[in-house]
Design goal:
Blueprint lengths: L16 E6 L12 E6 L5 E6 L1 H7 L6 E2 L5 H4 L13 H14 L9 H10 L3 E5 L5 H15 L2 H19 L7 H10 L2 E4 L3 H11 L5 H23 L1 H4 L3 E7 L2 H18 L3 E7 L9 E6 L7
Parallel strand pairs: 1-5, 1-7, 5-6, 7-8
Antiparallel strand pairs: 2-3, 2-4, 8-9
């Protein structure tokens, strides 16, 4: 098929500007990755004890009963890093295993699984913000795997039509790359933050002037994505920055949800008063889409 004859959805020019920030573990997928802890036994001794990310979110503050092996937290999160001798990152392998189980109907997806699916089909910008320590490229590859395995052929066609529409309307293109090139370009526009990644921690520490908690790290990542959005929309022209903009953040960890909600109220809503921020608490498995909190939103850019 000619690149000029490909399906292009020009109606994206009239869409609202709605974007998302996703935690990954137990929000998109329930991953098989384990955290290696030591647990206090009834006789007072400490024994090796592996927990899932969901369990860790509950027990991580129980310092009397759970601790890192040897008191070194890097030892607890050995499965949450990339290593030079790996042919494929642990994150990508675990994502493939999780997706296979979901697609076979063996396990349920996370509460934001379908929202990510819709985001990709619609070609909207997004960020993945996780407490893991992987390289951004590992996370981007996992999202590409999600596209390849989860989206139906019809959804991929719709996605590509939308992506080409955005390229016409905002990049003023008249010809396009291959399907793979257009998807890769789209994925390159998004943010992939693993907040315990050494490079991310170094950047964040330099910006903040000191060590910060995982909750503060996610605040930093959220701010980075919002600033990134504004830069992209500003390049698209004055009409873009005057449209209603909303940014949703979803996480299953109550500590992260509270920290981001507080950060939006105290700082981001003042810096970006035109943006409607929505926080989704997905910690309750009984709520299909999580608990939604609209933190702010005047929807009137003052540029």
């Amino acid at each position: 098929m000619s690149r000029h004859a490909q399906n292009v959805n020009l109606r994206v020019a009239d869409r609202d500007f709605k974007y998302y920030i996703f935690d990954w573990d137990d929000n998109i997928l329930h991953m098989p990755t384990h955290i290696h802890l030591e647990k206090r036994m009834p006789d007072g001794t400490w024994q090796p004890h592996q927990v899932s990310t969901a369990v860790f979110a509950v027990v991580r503050t129980e310092k009397e009963n759970y601790r890192a092996p040897g008191g070194v937290w890097d030892n607890a999160f050995v499965e949450f890093q990339d290593y030079a001798d790996e042919d494929e990152s642990r994150f990508l392998r675990d994502t493939r295993e999780s997706l296979d189980k979901v697609l076979r109907g063996e396990t349920l997806p996370g509460p934001s699984f379908n929202t990510l699916r819709e985001t990709l089909v619609e070609g909207r910008l997004f960020a993945i913000v996780t407490a893991r320590g992987h390289e951004p490229e590992s996370i981007r590859k996992a999202v590409r795997l999600f596209v390849d395995l989860v989206l139906t052929p019809a959804e991929k066609r719709e996605m590509l039509a939308n992506l080409r529409g955005y390229r016409v309307c905002f990049d003023h293109l008249t010809a396009f790359g291959t399907d793979d090139e257009e998807i890769d370009y789209y994925l390159s526009l998004n943010r992939y933050h693993a907040v315990t990644n050494p490079a991310f921690k170094q950047r964040m520490t330099k910006a903040s002037g000191g060590e910060v908690s995982p909750e503060n790290a996610k605040q930093f990542a959220v701010c980075d994505f919002v600033e990134h959005l504004i830069k992209i929309l500003s390049r698209a022209g004055a009409d873009s920055v005057r449209r209603p903009i909303s940014v949703g953040f979803s996480d299953d960890d109550l500590g992260n949800v509270a920290a981001v909600e507080r950060y939006i109220q105290d700082e981001l809503s003042k810096r970006f008063p035109a943006i409607k921020f929505c926080v989704y608490d997905t910690s309750d498995p009984g709520l299909t889409d999580g608990r939604k909190v609209v933190v702010s939103g005047q929807l009137d850019f003052g540029f």
